[in-house]
Specification:
The protein has two domains: 2-136, Creatinase/prolidase N-terminal domain (Creatine Amidinohydrolase, Chain A, domain 1, 3-Layer(aba) Sandwich); 141-353, Creatinase/methionine aminopeptidase superfamily (Creatine Amidinohydrolase). The strands form six sheets. A six-stranded mixed beta sheet has the order 4-3-2-1-5-6, with helices on both faces. It is built from ten helices and 18 strands. The chain is of the alpha+beta class. The N and C termini lie far apart (48 Å). Helices cover 34% and strands 21% of the residues.
Length: 364
């Protein structure tokens, strides 16, 4: 179980406990998908603290026997979160406390830590940075299955909107239809706000769909994803409306070669830096080296952007169960951009590409 693995890593000292504040990390450890929650894990008990708005949901998702969380409904009118945590720390005789420093603001922690210091036996508080996030890098079979389902929704939704690509349609109209198709096919929400740009606006790596109308010869860049059981997909495809010209074909092939170079190198134990270099060596030795996007990709799961972040300084190695994106791109202001992105996973049988939409240059 994920919670047991986390316990073994963190609760190595007697009378220790840990506070988890991140909604995403709480979901990962407990299966609770709501908000307004805090988790306190002690040597004896896993506590999930929430309020009346999420109490029943928390009991259903995290309070069952398999998850082994004691769910507490805090009376917000009569007890602060700090007061309840102090009560639990004293009840458990805790002396060492770890806390997620990246997921609580300074003012709240100063208030809480002052009460802990004055009213409990806790002698030491230690920041916990990136521990759950590191565990989240390696996905279970169920997590990978959810990402595959999300990717399949994305694949089908994209196929469904391509017949709508006509002269005069706006970026916004096409993006709305794509979002609708994903919802209809079962996506819980958007993985992120859909990125969609025509022509020169495709050079905006995170361009917000506008009222720009599609014209003959335009590049069409679409970056989007679906969500299943909280797990996200992330895919980019680039098309040409009409006949592709020589420059469009050349750059598309360049980006495709750069992506394939990284995919070909993706084996267990390879570093994110090495994958980046395989792709960058192609882009940075081309005529368009000044327009290559930074980085190569990132982990994806309960969050769109997770560890590892593939780039020139990424020493993290890719292991079995790691789901990452491979997404090189060329972005030329005033002309347009081309990006190809896939979700991939390393399994015991080797590399598997999760996103299945065709990657050959399509002229629509």
């Amino acid at each position: 179980m994920k919670i047991n693995q986390f316990r073994r890593q963190v609760l190595t000292q007697p009378h220790s406990a840990v506070l988890i504040f991140s909604d995403i990390n709480i979901r990962y450890l407990s299966n609770f998908s709501g908000h307004a929650a805090t988790v306190l894990i002690t040597e004896k008990t896993n506590y999930l603290i929430t309020d009346y708005r999420y109490f029943e949901q928390a009991k259903e998702q995290a309070g069952h026997e398999q998850k082994r969380f004691t769910v507490i409904c805090r009376d917000r009118a009569n007890q602060t979160l700090a007061e309840l945590i102090v009560e639990l720390l004293n009840q458990e005789s805790c002396q060492t406390l770890f806390f997620e420093s990246e997921h609580i603001n300074v003012a709240n922690w100063q208030t809480m830590s002052a009460q802990i210091e004055q009213q409990t036996q806790v002698k030491q508080t230690t920041a916990l940075v990136g521990t759950v996030e590191k565990l989240r890098m390696i996905k279970t079979a169920d997590e990978i299955a959810s990402i595959k389902q999300a990717a399949a929704i994305g694949d089908q939704a994209l196929a469904n909107i391509l017949p709508l690509v006509k002269a005069g349609i706006t970026e916004r109209e096409l993006a709305i239809e794509l979002d609708y198709q994903m919802a209809t096919l079962g996506s819980e929400e958007l993985s992120f706000a859909t990125i969609l740009g025509f022509g020169e606006r495709s050079a905006l790596p995170h361009g917000i769909p506008s009222n720009r109308k599609l014209k003959q010869g335009d590049l069409i860049l679409i970056d989007f994803g679906a969500v299943v059981n909280g797990y996200r997909s992330d895919m980019t495809r680039t098309f040409v409306f009409g006949k592709a010209d020589a420059k469009q074909k050349q750059i598309y092939q360049l980006v495709q070669d750069a992506q394939q170079a990284a995919i070909d190198k993706l084996t267990e134990g390879v570093s994110g830096q090495t994958l980046y270099e395989q792709s960058a060596n192609i882009l940075l030795n081309s005529d368009y080296k000044g327009h290559a996007g930074e980085g190569l990709g990132h982990g994806v799961g309960l969050q769109l952007h997770e560890q590892p972040f593939l780039g020139p300084d990424c020493k993290t190695t890719i292991e079995q169960g790691c789901v990452i994106t491979i997404e090189p791109g060329i972005y030329i202001p005033g002309w347009g951009g081309i990006r190809i992105e896939d979700d991939v996973v390393l399994t015991e049988n080797g590399l598997e590409i999760i996103t299945q939409a065709p990657k050959a240059l399509q002229e629509l």
